[in-house]
Design brief:
By secondary structure, this protein is mainly α. Helices cover 81% and strands 0% of the residues.
């Protein structure tokens, strides 16, 4: 019989909500992308990030995360790939052309934005460690099937993250409309975004 417990679920939801609001690589990534490309772009990035969270949850649920955490070689590969991907995004942002007529950056397709969010999440080993550390803390063997508990908590985490990050995307889009409506502002935004991507890459590799 499976029973998660209402109080346990509420505690986990509040913890996830707080952690989703605290500034970090993922929500900062959403903010910058929505500032550059708009609210809809932020939505597709969030969709990709949440798909990555689903992947991390599945890894924790089936136990693969423990292997990745303890296998130094596998863990380093993920970190290096994430580092290289963020460097790639930094270069792309730095060299993004500004349309001289509309004063906006060249728009990316929904697939490109979704892929950015997905790869950003999957190649950040700290996300996997976070999910691995958080989910088991709210699982109780006495409450029933462990896999079902992990899946329920993971689903709750994805929903909360989806809501909060879309609010961040809306904030980024609003900021862009209010303050970044000219070519010069967009130019500096692309440079700042590139620098932040580079700093996140350094943080991940270290």
């Amino acid at each position: 019989m499976y029973y998660l417990g209402f109080n346990n679920l509420v505690s986990f939801t509040l913890a996830t909500l707080v952690l989703a609001i605290i500034p970090g690589p993922d929500n900062l990534f959403v903010l910058l992308q929505s500032m550059s490309y708009g609210k809809k772009a932020g939505f597709y990035v969030v969709l990709g990030l949440c798909t990555g969270l689903l992947g991390h949850t599945l890894l924790v649920t089936i136990g693969v995360a423990n292997f990745i955490q303890t296998n130094t070689y596998a863990f380093r590969i993920i970190k290096i790939f994430g580092f290289c991907y963020l460097l790639y995004l930094a270069v792309r942002s730095w060299t993004t052309p500004i349309n001289k007529i509309t004063h906006h950056v060249t728009m990316l397709s929904p697939i490109q934005l979704y892929r950015r969010g997905l790869l950003m999440n999957l190649t950040n080993p700290k996300v996997l460690l976070f999910v691995l550390a958080l989910l088991p803390d709210f699982v109780n063997v006495k409450n029933g099937h462990i896999t079902t508990q992990l899946a329920t908590l993971g689903g709750d985490m994805i929903v909360i993250t989806f809501i909060v990050f879309n609010m961040v995307a809306y904030l980024g889009s609003t900021i862009s409309k209010l303050f970044l409506n000219n070519g010069q502002s967009q130019y500096y935004l692309t440079k700042i975004t590139a620098i932040i991507f580079f700093l996140i890459a350094i943080k991940i590799i270290l």
